[in-house]
């Protein structure tokens, strides 16, 4: 291979991106079929389901979504009455977002499906391979300051 040629198929960032996108698309079939959710809506629902109350900024940071995607997802979940907005008492520009009972019910329905998807994804790997993947991901996240 020539030194000034980048072979994408063996370039780790490209491989990680493609794998993450493929896995995300495969899992999106489940929540799209079940609830008609987009990826940003699922990420918003799952972030709030896991952490409870968050601001839109916190959601964007946690899910690595641009603020416009967060805003659209929040608006759609609010339209469905799965999410509520509560103004911050100290700063009216900030809203605290939380799932409603209906939103929490949808999230709780999806949790076992998400866990089953992950189990299926990893089922052909040995215990050691699964541990190695988790360790490598943690190391890369730590290296990039996102641990």
Salient structural properties:
147 residues; globular; mainly alpha; 3-stranded antiparallel beta sheet; 3 strands
The residue-averaged pLDDT reads 94
Radius of gyration over all CA atoms, rounded: 18 Å
- The side-by-side strand order for the widest beta sheet comes to 1-3-2
Uncertain residue ranges? none
Question: Could you estimate the helical fraction of the residues in percent?
Answer: 55-70%
Break the fold down into its secondary structure elements and pairings:
Elements (H helix, E strand, L loop, with lengths): L11 H24 L3 H13 L2 E2 H8 L3 H13 L3 E5 L7 E5 L1 H22 L4 H17 L4
Antiparallel strand pairs: 1-3, 2-3
Helix pairs in contact: 1-5, 2-4, 3-4
Tell me what you see in this structure.
With 147 residues, the protein is mainly alpha-helical. Helices cover 66% and strands 8% of the residues. The chain contains six helices and three strands. It starts with 11 loop residues before the first helix and ends with a helix.
């Amino acid at each position: 291979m020539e030194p000034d040629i980048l072979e994408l198929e063996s370039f780790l960032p490209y491989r990680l991106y493609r794998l993450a996108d493929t896995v995300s698309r495969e899992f999106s079939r489940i929540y799209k079929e079940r609830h008609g959710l987009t990826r940003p809506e699922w990420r918003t629902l799952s972030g709030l389901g896991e952490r409870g109350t968050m601001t839109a900024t916190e959601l964007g940071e946690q899910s690595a979504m641009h603020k416009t995607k967060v805003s659209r997802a929040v608006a759609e979940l609010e339209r469905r009455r799965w999410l509520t907005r509560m103004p911050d008492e100290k700063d009216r520009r900030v809203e605290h977002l939380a799932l409603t009972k209906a939103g929490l019910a949808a999230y709780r329905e999806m949790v076992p499906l998400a866990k089953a998807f992950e189990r299926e994804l990893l089922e052909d790997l040995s215990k050691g391979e699964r541990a190695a993947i988790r360790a490598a991901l943690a190391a890369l996240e730590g290296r990039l300051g996102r641990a």
